[in-house]
Amino acid sequence: MEYSPPPFFKRGPGLLTRFGFFALISVALLIADARFSYVDTARNALAALVNPFQRLFALPADGLSRVGEFFVTSAQLRRENDQLRRDALNNAAALQTQRAVAAENDNLRQLLGMSKRLERSSTAAEILHAPRDPFARRVVVDRGAQHGLRPGLAVVDRLGVIGQVTRVFPFSSEVTLITDKEQAVPIQVLRSGVRGVTFGIGYDGTLELRFMPVNADIQNGDLLVTSGIDGTYPPGLPVAIVSNIERNAAYAFARITCTPAAGVSSYGQVLIVSAAEAHAPSQTQTQTQTPSSPEAAATGTTEQEKR
Amino acid sequence: MAERGEGPEILRPARWSYIALTLALAVSANLLALPGVAQVLRPDLLALTLIYWVVYHPRRLGFLPAWILGLIMDVANGSLFGEHALAYAVLMYLSILLYRRIVMFGMIQQMLHVLAILVASQAVMLGVRVAAGADFPGIAYFVPSLLGAILWPALFALIRMPLRPRTGADVA
Predict the structure, then answer these.
(1) Neighboring chain B residues of A294 at a CB cutoff of 8 Å
(2) Binning pLDDT at 50, 70 and 90, where does residue B21 land?
(3) In which element (H, E) is residue A30 found?
(4) In chain B, domain spans
(5) Looking at beta carbons, which residues of chain B come within 8 Å of A138?
(6) Is the pLDDT assigned to residue B3 strictly greater than 50?
(7) Which one of 2.30.130.10, 2.40.10.340, 3.40.1190.10, 3.40.50.1980 gives the CATH number of domain A119-307?
(8) Of A117, B95, B150, B168, which sits most exposed with the smallest number of CB within 10 A?
């Protein structure tokens, strides 16, 4: 085929025409995606197609860590086992007191006529990979719409909040990390109860607590937990630890930076938690996405809190 | 390999299956999960492979396959739908425009041309993201292009390895 007709006789449309054609479709797609989210079905279809390959190509990285695990000595294993057993014991003690405290809390709430704290449901998932995108802090996890996920769910690891599900594919979903530039988390200072909102700034390992008055009751080392007033994040999950405070009377707000409590950029297992059953009437059968676009659901908190 | 850029050897025609194979391998290299900062700095091997086929085997690869591969990369990266597609369209346009010139040059000049094409396609993606409301992520954003240009001779040698004439002594 390459050599059959002399190429200068069959040119087809000119180069610029062809380029213009494809550039135009791309721009149309971009606008449809960015402004109207029209192309989600096409994206989902392609994602389902690409997903098995993504899993396949995540294997070598997994394999390397597995090989590392294979060469663990028994002394190391025993040490780790001891550590875990000690942790389990400590946790068991904490859990037992927690149960009593929770029961007491329920009773007190009943006495005061307050509504009960809502139960959470959770799904364990594994981080597949982080997309090659310098503009956003995101990871892809191996659970999707088929496992009952929907956009807006909170994602935590064993130390604290790592982000929020923003886009759901059939067998995987994208989680935007709290360090992403567009991600906001409503928080409460555990020590003083002051409420605020942390914002990602687009770098790993740093969050910003914006719009806090200069005289707000915040100290270095304060633990920030989710306040739960957004209905997205369940209340009481650790988010970050205050690392630096600049109080300058020349500005209306203090400059507060924090370090995420969770291992936001490290790989591993995560837990996807739904905030409250009230927002998900029948969680087991909601296989489809919510009618609003994932972006709208994801940035809902952002928009709302920015105002 | 680099010194021999002047005298182009006559290659056997590339089969479609081989072109598809190299592109599939390039896509998988792009999908491969890497730890930490390597993930962000990794050069776009798919873009390099596309440039190779356009430059050394013109008329084999049109806009459509490059564009579709761009959409696949968009889905895999979770970027805006059409971002990579647009960037690859620009890349194809520039490569087709320049291929006659590029093959005449030695390796260093070729690398510079490839660098320019890669930077242009990355700049398109940057433009799209900035238009969508992102901040400029810093000049390190273009490091993958630089690494890509540095990888060009290696990729060039690798892709054409099975295409070199089987019989006959290697040109010394």
Answers:
(1) none
(2) very high
(3) helix A15-31
(4) 14-162
(5) 78
(6) no
(7) 2.40.10.340
(8) B168
Which among B64, B70, B76 is the nearest to A131, CB-wise? B76
Size of interface A-B (CB pairs under 8 A): 124
CA A43 to chain CA centroid, nearest Å: 20
A82: how many CB neighbours lie within 10 A of its CB?
A: 10
pLDDT of residue A118: 62
Q: How far apart (Å, rounded) are the C-alpha atoms in residues A270 and A158? A: 7
| A305 to chain B, closest Cα gap in Å | 18
Best A26, A172, A175, A183 residue to mutate vs chain B (most B CBs within 10 Å): A26
Contact A131/B97, CB-based, under 8 Å? no
pLDDT of residue B168: 57
Which residues of B fall within a CB distance of 8 Å from A50? 31, 72, 75-76
- Say yes or no for a CB contact (<8 Å) between A46 and B71: yes
State the smallest CA–CA distance between residue B145 and chain A in angstroms: 13
Judged by a CB distance cut-off of 8 A, whether residue A273 touches chain B is no
Which tens digit of pLDDT belongs to each residue from B116-152?
999 999 999 999 988 887 778 888 889 999 999 999 9
Q: Does the CA dihedral B90-B91-B95-B98 come out positive or negative?
A: positive
Q: What is the pLDDT of residue A288?
A: 39
Separation CA A3–CA A188 (nearest Å): 71
- Name the amino acid, one letter, at A234: P
Q: Do B81 and A33 make contact, defined as CB atoms within 8 angstroms?
A: yes
Instruction: Report DSSP letters for B35-68, one per residue.
Output: -TTHHHH---HHHHHHHHHHHHSTTSS-HHHHHH
Decide which of A50 and B25 is more confident: B25
Contacts of B42 in chain A (CB under 8 A): 132
Burial A225-248 (b: 16+ CB within 10 A, else e): bbbbebebbbbebbbbbbeebeee
Task: Give the nearest partner residue to A34 out of B93, B97, B132, using CB atoms.
Answer: B132
* Ranges of residues in chain A whose predicted pLDDT is under 50: 1, 277-307
pLDDT above 70 coverage of chain B, percent: 90
Domains of chain A, by residue range, sit at: 15-68, 119-307
pLDDT at B5: 44
Distance from CA of A165 to the nearest CA of B (A): 13
Task: In whole angstroms, give the CA distance from residue A24 to residue A43.
Answer: 19
CATH number 1.10.12 is the correct assignment for the domain at B14-162: no
